[in-house]
Amino acid sequence: xxxxxxxxxxxxxxxxxxxxxxxxxxxxxxxxxxxxxxxxxxxxxxxxxxxxxxxxxxxxxxxxxxxxxxxxxxxxxxxxxxxxxxxxxxxxxxxxxxxxxxxxxxxxxxxxxxxxxxxxxxxxxxxxxxxxxxxxxxxxxxxxxxxxxxxxxxxxxxxxxxxxxxxxxxxxxxxxxxxxxxxxxxxxxxxxxxxxxxxxxxxxxxxxxxxxxxxxxxxxxxxxxxxxxxxxxxxxxxxxxxxxxxxxxxxxxxxxxxxxxxxxxxxxxxxxxxxxxxxxxxxxxxxxxxxxxxxxxxxxxxxxxxxxxxxxxxxxxxxxxxxxxxxxxxxxxxxxxxxxxxxxxxxxxxxxxxxxxxxxxxxxxxxxxxxxxxxxxxxxxxxxxxxxxxxxxxxxxxxxxxxxxxxxxxxxxxxxxxxxxxxxxxxxxxxxxxxxxxxxxxxxxxxxxxxxxxxxxxxxxxxxxxxxxxxxxxxxxxxxxxxxxxxxxxxxxxxxxxxxxxxxxxxxxxxxxxxxxxxxxxxxxxxxxxxxxxxxxxxxxxxxxxxxxxxxxxxxxxxxxxxxxxxxxxxxxxxxxxxxxxxxxxxxxxxxxxxxx
Length: 597
Hints:
Number of helices: 30
Mean pLDDT: 87
Radius of gyration: 35 Å
Helix content: 55-70%
Strand order of the largest sheet: 3-4-2-1-5-6-7
Structural class: mainly alpha
Shape: elongated
Largest sheet: 7 strands, parallel
Distance between the termini: 73 Å
Number of strands: 9
């Protein structure tokens, strides 16, 4: 078992706490895993091809070209062997070079289908770190463009420096979001370096830039053995370092790498390969960030919910975001006062209610966004989990005999259920609302009673109290016939302003949720579980048609929705078509009795 203070842990903490301070050096080991050969590997293969083309029948020449390409070139070639010299003779024009090199760097259709010669997990994980600002400088000895492709895939356009003469015109490292420095050039560029002689020294521009990087930045090395790049090794050893060097275990086994690690007090990170190294590093940094970041503003949280909803690969991120907000509300409920400072009156209740309302406000905003914009119900289980979390917090044992304090803990859950009910009436999220009201359960009497479905446990008569609500100072002594209904209607309006523009349409939707929850309560009551349907302003004298038999407008809208909505579970819930009609008429009679009382 690795130490808690493993090098990987130390690096993750350092990079998360100091974004942009660590540069990354990528060697050929990162790209070979993606199917890209090294520069020297390309030279060897090209020499072999030249040998076969020059002397088709000379097996000895072919063998020498494979075993010792430098010796073969010394005998048969022109000038010193190197990537640039060889390409200049084989393909003197840019178009010709593209044709010669394409097979080494560009995937065929079959390779593309198999993910060969495409950005690897390491490239993509590193690109995400760049996107988040954790890494801003990438050095590479590779000729390929996989790193650039990975960055472009995540929406980052880096400045790419592949020739030393470009250094003087580059944006300062501190001012660029991302900089990729290709020390050995680009595969289509004749200025590339790969032979021992070419790698023995660097031009002054490279040396100056490397001196800056190695003195001002920490360094993570992956896929680079240091065996051939003498000039790069010297730059690392000669630089003054403010921050540590970390090197992956797979590429740091050689004697040169070990010498550099000792000289610079570097640390080795155990990793099976570059893919595992960068994926694990990104996961560790993300976990650390989630611990230290301040809660998202409501606007940012809603924006993320909308962005995550259509992307099922981000289901876990959506869950963690929403449940994180729900957990904060639940924790606030759990920490609620258990004793009263004074006798409870309307003022005390108003203060308590408003405290719960404002604490739940961010959750209400993301709940509307998440349910309104998910008509297929792909994330319905998430909202069941949210309501269950609130019910568990609101019914936990409480060392208090104060009825108001006990009941008020369910206010956030009542608000969430009312929000989704309003969305159901306005947007057709019928199945979700029915599931929330009937499948999510909690235990009343501070967790000691028999489980009740949310539709009954969150009955407004259980959570609120007429006299408390009517005595709230906000009404300036005005009293309402249906005070709980009026309170929720007034306070939920602000959460729907971006979704339901007209006040009259919002009232219709809210009354629609009151009608729906009443139907559920009546059904549960019929099975011996709880109170009858809650009354509300939807059954007031203005809530009925003038024709006889009088029908509540909420029922008229409900029947209209039954004929035009694909998501319509109510007929089945009420026992089928025949029962559906009978129950609606019976429910209407109950609501009419409220209006007459």
